[in-house]
From TrEMBL:
GO terms for biological process: DNA recombination; DNA repair. Residues 254-334 are annotated as: Head domain (RuvB-H). It is found in: Cytoplasm. This is Holliday junction branch migration complex subunit RuvB. It catalyses: ATP + H2O = ADP + phosphate + H(+). It comes from Nocardioides szechwanensis.
Amino acid sequence: RSLTAAEAEGDERAIEAALRPKSLDEVVGQHRVREQLGLVLEAARRRERAPDHVLLSGPPGLGKTTLAMIIAHEMSTPLRLTSGPAITHAGDLAAILSGMNDGDVLFVDEIHRMSRPAEEMLYMAMEDFRVDVVIGKGPGATAIPLEIPPFTLVGATTRAGLLPGPLRDRFGFTAHLEYYEASELDLIVHRSAGLLGVELTEEGSAEIASRSRGTPRIANRLLRRVRDYAQVRADGVVTLDIAHAALALYEVDELGLDRLDRAVLDVLCRRFGGGPVGISTLAVAVGEERETVEEVAEPFLVRNGFLARTPRGRVATAGAWRHLGLAVPTSAAM
Ligand code: ADP
């Protein structure tokens, strides 16, 4: 019997959960964040207090949810998970907060997408551990103060700059997660292969690592796709040749650029002569949300020297033209 799409996705999520590091010691890379966070947690444990609120920023798949789970785990408290888009009314947040116990960790993913009224309620909750619940409407409305036990908020966002200043300022510790080095991704691929019982060679692992777009989630996903290929078309061992063939099949190029990354460069060079182009125009041209282009594709392209942000818009670098196999115009940015 073959899996339905939903089952397959559930399966993928279950695998992702199984591959998550459970403690700070198991986290690969992010040395500075690990050390800083380790200190914050150790100090809180010694004082027997809930740690300060933590803000984690960085592109998707770099370990924000993983770190939130580790914070709860290391403090031996339950983790409550929600997300900005799920909190459309202040009342949604009040319901969550009023159900919390002393020392609980509340994880709010995509915290920059919370509604304004909820955000304002959150300021108060973070600072004073109380909120005002408004009952009724108009002149008859009354605010009922509600005490909340001390808790730790862990917020995640793709860019800290998306948060309003007052919210950002209420986090006692902010960590920015950076893309991973190929050597770190190599360790992650090895670790995951061990957990999944996949046999792989050094070259096979290095190949997957170098095409993972600096992102652990992608490294784990590519490992699973290459494993599929190895099992169906070969003897199950992930070698360099198998990794090459599988990644070519899934259209992951040798630098790890995915379809969206390539589409952005392609449109920028072929349609707009290398720019400058505004981000909104670029997003429309590739048929994606502006946020996705700005928060997912762009940081990777900038970090790898394919794209530059200028006051007049985005421009393609000489490297971008070359990567697309096009002649570099003399005007191209270096
Ligand atoms: P985010 O919340 O930033 O989108 P996640 O925390 O969900 O990212 O991480 C995605 C996957 O990548 C997880 O399943 C986890 O196994 C893996 N991962 C993330 N960071 C690390 C890390 N530092 N070491 C090992 N695995 C990691």
